[in-house]
Design goal:
Chain lengths: 293, 389
């Protein structure tokens, strides 16, 4: 492997890792801060992708299109959706056992998949990237790199920064972190913890939906697309340390690197390498790379 | 209803029931078990196969070989774990005369085993696992679709014919993927080409970027790819986005561009694939088949519908040979073996292992269609490796 190829592979790894982070960060927030094992998180990713597919023509017909308009509309819808979902289902789960959480969120997966099948059908669909991002950048002499993938990375980095600032530097972030470590105490200090959790959950959902929406043009939309993402996201969350956004970022990049170079150097073992990485890290640090925070 | 009425009705029912066998003595309905995916990723394929099968029956006045048909449907969900139970429902509970199915290669293996064990007649209208007409072959197992080997071997022949010397193959690491990659290698080698690297990734992963970079750095003359459904859409789009379509031409079996063209859009234009069916075939049978299919279902037929149609044709050939008497199994099988099926894909016969011997076409993606270019390999027969019959 020459240097140029190696660098392109590194770029692939980082790009894949950043997209993983976008899904996993929402999962780690919900899992770590609210203590709910949310198997339906992959479905939110799937819903996002299908939204990108279904909303684009709708937005095109009403306000003449616009990639960001579609994104914004999707995000608003998903926040409202997350808010309602927390109110209707998840708010009953906090005090319950993990088994019950798993059962209900697994049930939600089935419901969402069936709804998708009824509403949109089981066909594979493509989603077009906006024209101004559909070009590609030449890399080396045979290969080009699609601009849209670079755009995805940029969005992921922006979201990571935004999350860090909100969680570490704002009053809201302080309340969220406090709520994670001691729910009753925060309540006693006069913070409306129920509302706070609802907001966190809604944003967690929005992160997964955003990931689905911006990934749709490169991944296309197809049935059960959420399942694959869910498993790898859980790996990221566990490696990074449950509830740690910083850990999720590092873990996503690590998983991206292992997956990419694993496929190139050890194609026979590519399927297990990521899980091997998880096992090794858990042996070394049973709580993941970072403690919550 | 008072007691007298109940008695009267019961008596009438009894009379009707006892009269039934007498009326049906000459013409007992033929029990056809359709074991197909009606839900899940392959649902559309299952429905197309059933539509095709029923279209032939309809064209013949609702009968096959003079027998009326009674259908028993089981949704196999494309789940190999449930396959043995599902096929058991048709064979043991419904006692069907013939089982038609299925799409998924893993499910079909369980069906072939059950068919061998119980000596039930099985017609496979899609699943391409080589083994069905290889090690698992049996007098009572027939296939009207293809073997994985056939479609990929032809792609190898075409790639070599077009002057390529070095190729890379890429597919999912599972049975069908391995069979396709191996067959391509064989066809390509026959024309003097070599496969310099066989790339693969776990099924059904779709993160191709690392492997595309690998292809770019290897700089082969051509790439052979086998993916299906969502994976095929994403691979073709990623391949184009990586700028490889222009520098390293892409070849594949037809599944790479069948039923996925709407989603692949611009990225698939001009791709060359090989399959036993195509759009715009120069034969009359296909034209009338397409016309009738559209009339009956308000849908365009595809290769799966044609395979279902041929499954019914093959069954009809067998029954016609014994004047509808399916109990004469040996003669019926003989009639099926020697049948010449007037298929929408063009006429075909069956090999010794009961797999179609058919022309494989070279197709080119133009707009939303896989346009017929030419016959890639004439009357290609599967080698039926491992079949002892």
């Amino acid at each position: 492997m020459d240097l140029a190829t190696f660098l392109i592979q590194c770029l692939n790894a980082v790009q894949y890792g950043l997209l993983l982070f976008l899904v996993a960060s929402g999962l780690t927030l919900i899992f770590g801060i609210m203590g709910v094992i949310n198997l339906a998180h992959g479905s939110f990713y799937m819903i996002g992708a299908y939204m990108a597919y279904a909303l684009a023509p709708l937005v095109g017909a009403t306000v003449g299109g616009g990639f960001f308009t579609t994104l914004a509309l999707g995000l608003l819808l998903s926040i409202a959706f997350g808010y309602l979902l927390e109110w209707g289902f998840f708010s009953f789960l906090y005090e319950r056992e993990h088994l019950q959480q798993v059962l209900m969120t697994y049930g939600l997966i089935l419901v969402f998949e069936e709804l998708r099948s009824i509403l949109v059908g089981d066909d594979v669909h493509g989603v077009a990237a906006p024209d101004w991002l559909s070009g590609s950048v030449p890399l080396g002499d045979v290969m080009t790199y699609p601009t849209y993938r670079l755009f995805i990375s940029a969005v992921c980095i922006a979201v990571a920064l935004g999350l860090y600032i909100v969680l570490a530097r704002t009053r809201l972030g302080m309340m969220i972190r406090a709520g994670a470590s001691n729910r009753e105490m925060v309540q006693a200090m006069g913070v409306n913890i129920k509302f706070l959790y609802r907001v966190v959950f809604a944003f967690g959902v929005a992160l997964a939906v955003l990931a689905g929406m911006i990934a749709a043009p490169v991944s296309s939309v197809y049935p059960n697309m959420g399942g694959q993402v869910l498993i790898i996201s859980f790996v990221v969350v566990v490696i990074g340390g449950i509830g740690s956004v910083r850990g999720a970022l590092l873990a996503s990049l690590l998983v991206g690197l292992v997956d990419t170079f694993g496929k190139v150097f050890f194609p026979e073992a590519a399927g297990v390498l990521v899980y091997l990485l998880m096992a090794i890290i858990l042996l070394w640090k049973p709580e993941g790379l970072f403690r919550q925070g | 209803m008072n007691r007298r009425q109940v008695l009267a009705v019961t008596a009438a029912l009894c009379a009707a029931v006892s009269a039934l066998p007498a009326a049906a003595q000459q013409q007992p309905k033929l029990k056809v078990g359709l074991m197909l995916p009606y839900t899940g990723t392959f649902a559309a394929l299952g429905n197309a196969i059933e539509n095709g099968f029923k279209l032939y029956v309809q064209e013949n006045g609702g009968k096959i070989g003079g027998r009326e048909i009674e259908y028993f449907r089981v949704d196999d969900e494309s789940d190999p774990a449930k396959a043995t139970d599902n096929v058991g429902k048709l064979i043991n509970r419904d006692k069907v005369d013939v089982v038609v199915g299925t799409v998924h290669s893993g499910v079909v293996m369980a069906m072939a085993k059950a068919a061998r064990d119980t000596n039930t007649l099985l017609i496979v209208p899609n699943a391409g696992a080589n083994a069905v007409t290889g090690p698992m072959c049996a007098p009572n197992i027939f296939r009207t679709s293809f073997s994985n080997w056939q479609s990929a071997y032809a792609a190898g022949v075409v790639a070599a014919e077009r002057g390529h010397k070095k190729a890379v193959s890429i597919t999912w690491k599972y049975a069908a993927g391995d069979e396709m990659a191996l067959a391509f290698k064989e066809g390509f080698a026959k024309g003097g080409g070599t496969v310099i690297k066989e790339l693969n990734l776990p099924f059904p992963g779709v993160e191709f970027q690392a492997l595309l970079t690998e292809i770019a750095s290897l700089k082969p003359d051509a790439t052979f790819a086998f993916f299906a459904g969502g994976g095929a859409v994403k691979f073709v789009k990623d391949y184009a986005a990586a700028g490889l379509t222009k520098t390293v031409p892409l070849y594949g079996p037809g599944f790479l561009t069948d039923g996925t063209l709407e989603a692949q859009g611009e990225a698939a234009q001009g791709l060359l694939t090989t399959l036993h069916y195509a759009d715009g075939l120069p034969n009359e049978k296909d034209k009338s088949f397409r016309l009738n299919y559209v009339k009956a279902y308000k849908l365009q037929p595809d290769v799966y519908a044609a395979q279902g149609y041929d499954a019914a044709q093959l069954l009809a050939a067998g029954l016609n040979g014994v004047k509808g008497d399916s109990s004469k199994r040996a003669e019926m099988i003989k009639a099926m073996e020697s049948a010449k099926i007037d298929s929408p894909r063009g006429p075909f016969t069956l090999s010794k292992a009961h797999n179609p011997v058919h022309d494989i076409y070279l197709r080119k993606v133009e707009g939303g269609a896989n346009k017929y270019q030419k016959v890639a390999v004439k009357a290609l027969a599967d080698p039926a490796t491992g079949c002892k019959m």
